[in-house]
Design goal:
The protein has one domain: TON_0340 (inorganic pyrophosphatase (n-terminal core), Alpha-Beta Complex). About 45% of the residues lie in helices and about 10% in strands.
């Protein structure tokens, strides 16, 4: 990062945008404070800086996502919150850092993940093809296309196999359930999520950390993968937090009001550090959301197939992108944004 840019100020501005509790859930502020105390710097900028330091052109980056909609007990339903942000971040990682993004989700959720990637402008290729794509046409792969397990008994072996195959520079979780100490999954109200619906991303993150890969978690309610980094705050501030608190820690945790917002903010920070203030203008968030909805993704709070993120309307999400683009341009080129 160059000394001629106020990156600290940029980090504070971006965090303020995505961590303010617009949805009035009441947990964002204390969870953000706990993550900020642990990190000691703005969360989004910290994650972007670490990715820029660790990811080289051609490096795979795994992005775990997909929140199963357990209320309906249907294995092929997921919220828009998660896959949309994951696809946007995949585009940033590919275009700004030259990475090979690989979305990891439950096999039943692959169609939504693939549709979101296409909405972000990426070609969805077979995993082996994507892993070889160190040059030439840009490609993204969905690891679930080859079936990342939802079976806890297979999780360790499957994680080792996928990591042996790809050797990712980083593994990121975006709005994906995090298991508690007993291995159970819960929503923010402590209702249990059937384990057989959940991709076993915890095992993948833990195994990746042991091998030295960077690990990042993004969540908004305290029950997501990576919130083990601030488990005490989850226990203290969530009703039934003792039951909900995830166990898995990550190197860097981002807490946002909406997970998609935090993921798009991470894209913005990556583009800023890469000297690409034009990046956000070239990615159509509306198209990503529409493609995910057309593939069957639903808005979590309402259960409608609707172009929202965690209940927030499309206009608010597009407005967030406009504000992030303003922040990137201002801090990259100066306040006159010439």
């Amino acid at each position: 990062m160059g000394d001629d840019h106020d990156w600290a100020g940029f980090g504070e501005a971006v965090d303020a945008l995505v961590a303010t509790d617009f949805t009035a859930r009441g947990v964002c502020a204390p969870l953000y404070a706990a993550a900020r105390e642990r990190t000691g710097e703005p969360l989004v900028l910290a994650a972007a800086t670490r990715l820029r330091e660790r990811v080289r052109p051609g490096d795979p980056v795994l992005i775990c996502t997909g929140w199963p909609c357990a209320t309906w007990l249907l294995s092929d339903l997921t919220e828009t919150d998660g896959p949309v942000g994951a696809a946007h971040l995949a585009r940033a990682l590919e275009e700004c850092l030259g990475a090979v993004p690989v979305l990891v989700t439950a096999p039943a959720l692959v169609p939504v993940a693939a549709a979101a990637l296409r909405g972000a402008g990426l070609v969805v290729a077979d995993l082996d093809v994507a892993a070889r794509s160190k040059s030439g046409p840009r490609r993204a792969a969905v690891a679930g296309a080859i079936g990342f397990t939802t079976d806890a008994a297979r999780a360790g072996d499957d994680a080792a196999g996928l990591l042996d195959r790809l050797r990712p520079a980083a593994v990121i979780g975006i709005e994906v359930p995090g298991a508690n100490q007993a291995g159970d999954y819960h929503d923010a109200t402590a209702s249990r999520i059937p384990s057989e619906l959940v991709v076993k991303a915890d095992a993948l993150v833990r195994a990746a950390a042991e091998r030295g890969s960077l690990t990042i978690g993004i969540g908004d309610g305290g029950n997501e993968l990576g919130m083990g980094s601030i488990a005490e705050a989850v226990r203290r501030h969530l009703p039934d937090g003792e039951i909900v608190a995830p166990a898995t820690e990550v190197d860097t945790l981002i807490v946002g009001c909406v997970s998609n917002w935090a993921a798009v903010a991470l894209s913005a920070a990556i583009s800023a550090l890469a000297g690409r203030p034009d990046f956000l203008a070239g990615v159509d968030l509306r198209r990503i959301i529409d493609q995910a909805c057309d593939a069957g993704a639903i808005d979590g709070p309402t259960s409608y197939i609707d172009a929202k993120s965690d209940g927030t309307p499309l206009a608010a999400n597009l407005g967030l992108v406009a504000l992030l683009e303003t922040a990137v341009r201002a801090h990259s080129t100066g306040w006159r944004m010439a």
